[in-house]
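Workshop exercise sheet. Pairs work together: one partner reads the sequence aloud, the other fills in the structure field after running the prediction. Swap roles for the next sheet.
Pair: D.N. / O.F.
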Amino acid sequence: MKALKESFKALPKWIQILLLAILAIFGVTIFGFIFGYIIMWLWNQLMPQIFGLPTITYWQGVGLFILARILLGTFGSDNSNKSNIKSTKKTTDTSSDPDWVRYNTWWEKEGKTAFENYTSTSE
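Structure field:
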């Protein structure tokens, strides 16, 4: 394996990129075929028995997968949402959020005693 890595690194950069692109296209194609078959098999095993729906073909399974990806919006990766989530987790100042102000007020008035009563009775 080490010799293969060394011989790969000895190739010109454009050949390395071309080989990786071909390998990626091949891998995605194989994954698509396998995933389409899995969806078809799961559908045909579950849906007709549970809901009385008809069985589907392989290409209908692939179509369901693509439709689900489009409707759920999970094609590609959107890193902007991840950075927004990280930035909101870092902020601990909740004084300007009216929902947190109401929660903190409730917690001070009723929440602590209700929690202490709950934990003392559950032991």
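Discussion prompt: Residues 69 and 75 are 6 Å apart (CA to CA). What would you look at next?
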